[in-house]
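Lecture 7 notes: from sequence to structure.
We start with the chain below.
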Amino acid sequence: MQFIQPTETRYDLERLPSESLIINGTPMEELVPGFRTLSVGGRELRGRNINAINRQGNDGAIFLDSKLEPRVLPVRYKLTAQDNAEFRYLFNKMNALLQREQLSIRVLDEPEYSYTGTLESVPDVPQGRNIVVSDLTLFCADPYKYKDAVTVNGTNTVDILMDTFYDTYPQEITITPTNSTSTLTIRNGNKEIKLVDGSFVGGQPVVIRFGDDITVTNQNGSMTDKIALHSDLENFTLNKGDTVQFVEGGQISIKVSQVML
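Predicted structure tokens for the same chain:
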């Protein structure tokens, strides 16, 4: 089994503040001259929204379920401009950078993990000055953060060795059958993904990509219609210690990110 580390990104640690806000892979201090991150909050312990009903005539309540709410990251920053023209230019640049629906968000003190979020709110900045301290809030619909993806390769099987504290789904599974076959089966315990009614050529890789839409492709194009109806696509989670099997035999590669709160 081969373990491939993702490419590491290096930042100028001496020049940047310890909680530098990193947007789409680049610190804000490098994107906007005069910007300096003062703090990024909302990254510590997370409470759960509890669904319970009161006990009629009795103490306490009946617990039904709970869930994590979306994450909010409050950011405090300082912006320094030399004059009014530069002040306007810097805020124009910040608007252009942050007014995208989905941003990749990292913080320098934990750069291996990323959130996905959107600029939600900003207060009015102090008026009549070119050096301001203000705030912005980033809304993350997904409360989890994700480590840089790694790829695990094997022949017939791969073992999941990474820590999995929360539900962990693959990003991609690539299988290359040794021999031509009409079915492809990936099994993890009692969970199974099966492709049927196909002509899967030996030595030709088939890629399953997970996300909002799950797709299957090979070098000739889409094979998504080959997914068997009973396949466990939406609950094909991976846990530490699992052995994922490629039943028909051949090379199997899984790309996966560690999930944390």
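Points to note: The CA atoms of residues 186 and 246 lie 5 Å apart. Helices lie at 28-31, 84-98.
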